[in-house]
Amino acid sequence: MSDPEFHPADFMKPADFMGPADFIKVDGVDMTFSRGEEEVHALRGLDLSIPKGRFVAVVGPSGCGKSTLMRLLTGLAKPSAGTVTLEGAALRGPAKGVGMAFQNASLLPWRSTLSNVMLPFEIVAPHKRRLRANRAEYEARARALLKTVGLEAFADNQPWELSGGMQQRANVARAIVHEPRLMMLDEPFGALDAFTREELWSVMQALWMERGFTAVLITHDLREAVYLADEVLVMSARPGRIVHRQEIDLPRPRTLEMTYEPPFQAHVHSLRDHIQTVREAH
Amino acid sequence: MTRRRLQILMPWAVTLGLFALWEAFCKISGIEVFILPAPSDAWAAGVEFWPQLLEHSLQTLFTTTAGFVLAVGFGVLLGLAIGSSTLVYKGLYPVLVGFNSIPKVALVPVLVIWFGIGTVPAIITAFVISFFPIAVNVATGLATIEPELTDVLRSLGASRREILAKIGLPRAMPYLFASLKIAITLSFVGSVISETVASNSGIGYLMLAASSNYNVPLVFAGLLVVAFLGVLMYALMALVEGRMTGWAFRGTDLMS
């Protein structure tokens, strides 16, 4: 757990090999774990770049290292080789102020929904310093966000009183309340029923269109990827790398009706073919 | 009668029933009072010697509580250290398990050499016997934090201290309070052992003195007082637990 401190100076030196459009850049990253005697190559020779404000989805066969990629992009894991840069600075520890949402809603059971959503304000600068004196203002912000995700009536309920879908709404709200520059979504809708999931796609899209953060979504669901993303990356089986990049040029806001129309279906089919190829190659 | 009222009556009914059985057994079998006194004999002895009984049980309550408070302080700190650092865990665990395996009664003579007889060894024995479950439980609470939750906080930029304060401590609270119920009863075991072996006061000493006078009813009165104090302190801990960590019990009516 001993991560070297993150140096603010890293943010100031521009990396000369990158264009200004690159928000995240991954160069030749290898990721190897040792499991007993054997070495497991989770990622090998992975390159990718994500411009600021884009919504990018990563899909791939299970066990291809998608979640490893996610930990890598936020600095929670260190690459065995290669570099990860975030806004022009090489990552040397957990990137601060990133919003994360996992499949497991992982709300704190001893806090109300509102208090759970306000958690980032207690940690992220400069809110951390201002919170005590400006509690009402922050609470209003959190309540407004709860309203956007349709939870305004449940702000004061405890998490276990919420349904799975509502917990996941609260989880997304917690990940986003401090307006992070980067939002990481690791199958956040994976455990929900189909109707709730589709409902949350539209909530997610609305939040993204309103706030314009950069988002990386990891998912198994190709329809979800096409619905939400500007760009879908297909990863190969282990050792993972990006084998296909697909631009999703559908207009926004996208609707559920669009998912049944040919252009949407064509994207899903094309992605499915690529994943099939990857799985057969394995 | 509703099931709920039955649940409230049950502990009283079972306790009184056991006493009634015991009383009946003694009266019917005609067993000698210095072998097994009936509850009524123990009660009579308790009434007869109540000033001594009160004085010595207050002493025992004092040493037990003092040892328990020390155990909570030390156990929580130790549990935090073990639970939040793998290195500390690896280093200390064998030592702790080894120490916990030593029968604490064997420590009392050593404590007497160091501190003399009386209050201090009783407090220390109560302490050493009860800190272990507290430390283990607090460590377990910390060690079972979902890794996703830690990731969420780390990617927000939380320091280790903040992670401990925001999730570690609240997460460990139900484990801590569960262990307090065990620890308080163990504390009584510790203090009474020490008083029995080396003291001039306390319930343990009173029982030893009574048994050397063949006043077996008074020995049993002492035993019942210890049991009563144990139940009382346990109930107190359960009450505190319910107040502090009601969220951990969700919808179940375990607490009601």
Automatic annotation (TrEMBL), chain A:
Xref: InterPro entries: AAA+_ATPase (IPR003593), ABC_transporter-like_ATP-bd (IPR003439), ABC_transporter-like_CS (IPR017871), ABC_transporter_ATP-bind (IPR050166), P-loop_NTPase (IPR027417)
GO molecular function ontology, one term from the record: ATP binding
Full protein name: NitT/TauT family transport system ATP-binding protein
Family note: Belongs to the ABC transporter superfamily.
This protein's UniProt keywords: ATP-binding, Nucleotide-binding, Transport
Pfam families: ABC_tran (PF00005)
Top-level taxonomic group: Bacteria
Organism placement in taxonomy: Bacteria, Pseudomonadati, Pseudomonadota, Alphaproteobacteria, Rhodobacterales
Domain ABC transporter residue range list: 26-262
UniProtKB/TrEMBL annotation, chain B:
Transmembrane helix among keywords: yes
Membrane topology (UniProt): Multi-pass membrane protein
Residues spanning the membrane: 61-83, 95-117, 123-145, 175-194, 214-240
Assigned keywords, A-Z: Cell membrane, Membrane, Transmembrane, Transmembrane helix, Transport
CC terms in the record's Gene Ontology section: plasma membrane
Family per similarity comment: Belongs to the binding-protein-dependent transport system permease family.
SUPFAM superfamilies from the UniProt entry: MetI-like
Protein origin, superkingdom: Bacteria
Biological process according to GO: transmembrane transport
Boundaries of every ABC transmembrane type-1 domain copy: 57-237
Pfam family, one: BPD_transp_1
Compartments (UniProt record): Cell membrane
Gene3D superfamilies associated with the record: MetI-like
UniProt KW Membrane keyword: yes
Protein name as it appears in the record: NitT/TauT family transport system permease protein
